[in-house]
Amino acid sequence: MISALASTSLEGFRFVGLGFASLDRQLLAPRPAPASPLGWRCFQLGVLLLAASAFLGGVLLLVALILGCRGRRPPLADAANRLLLLLAALMVLGCFGAYSGWLAWVGLGNWLPFFVAFWAFQPYLATAAARRRVALLLVAATVPVIVTGLGQLWWGWHGPFQALGGLVIWHLKPGGNPPGRLAGLFDYANIAGSWLAFAWPLVLAALIEPRLGRRRRGIVLLLAAGLVTAVFLTDSRNAWGALVLAVPLVLGPLSWGWLLPLLMALLLLVAAASLGGVPDLLQAPARALVPEAIWGRLSDLHYAGQRPLAITRLAQWQVALGLVAERPWLGWGAAAFSLIYPLRTGHWHGHPHNLPIDLALSHGVPAALGLVGFVLWLLLRALGPALLRGNGFDRAWWTAALVLAALHATDMPVYDSRINVAGWVLLAGLQALAQPAGPPAAEAG
Asked: Would you say residue 150 lies in a domain?
């Protein structure tokens, strides 16, 4: 009897061991040659867990970052890293005379570690197969965002939910934040919309992948429908625009002959329903076709004339640009806007809802121009390899980076740590994408 139980237990452990070994082989299968096996494992698991737990995902990605710096040529041999080092020096120098005091030094945490991550993450994204794998992991990481967001609005879920002794905490506010708007795992609807917006091109690439079987395509189609529904429920106009922008870019130039006229017709219809000054003869039928939830939000129907001027983005930008003019070279320091704006307007805002303006205000015009120019340079450099010569996932990767960059024109999702990490993963992938084809992926095992 005892020997039979022991034999059964041994077989069970062997089965579990074989399962883990098979999973590990799958995890290592598309490993790029420059990436260490442990670093590649940690990088993938970190990306997968990033949205659900910034702590667990961050720890794994930190290990991957350390391993990604080993055994490579000196970082400063790369012109991009030399530029980032110069920007880091400007940011540090500005902290010594910052209006915001110690907050300026804390604010460097939003940038300097990620300058290193940009360099360290590139070995994990060196091949098209590796970028495809990471893109699919970002898609998988989006599932809890969608599920918790829909549960928050449709089934009354609310947190906090905790696991692993508080290492994983989901703060779900009842009814969304703001009320009635989907936020899911994030603190605010616009932040959730930003994550979903950059994930959309990656989901779309998975949906149109030619070799996808019927069962898997059905799963991806369900996920795509859930993501689009979640984006709509965030009530984020930026995220809505990203849905439209991504489609022609991911489908590629061969689709533009029929797709662009169709999208243009739909956009003209929505514009006729939403914009002021459109003759009623045109606007009435347009509003009959476009749901009021869309044209009402785009026209700011429910808040028009109710907001004080000081809380609008235009007012924030005007005050922020005035502050930039007062200290153009090294800025006022991180978080200075949140201290100064209430003194000048009587209303509090944490940031000016525009990343280039916020960078110029916090760290000076040279640092802002350098960082914005750096991102634009990466996008332009990878444009040809991605859109004209790349596969669907490389087009989606470039599109996701473009979407996330564009969202920062009217909002600041970079100050959510999970989106900040994801953004630098995308930028590191752009750098790898623009490089000449490297060695093939390493063998698993």
From this structure: yes
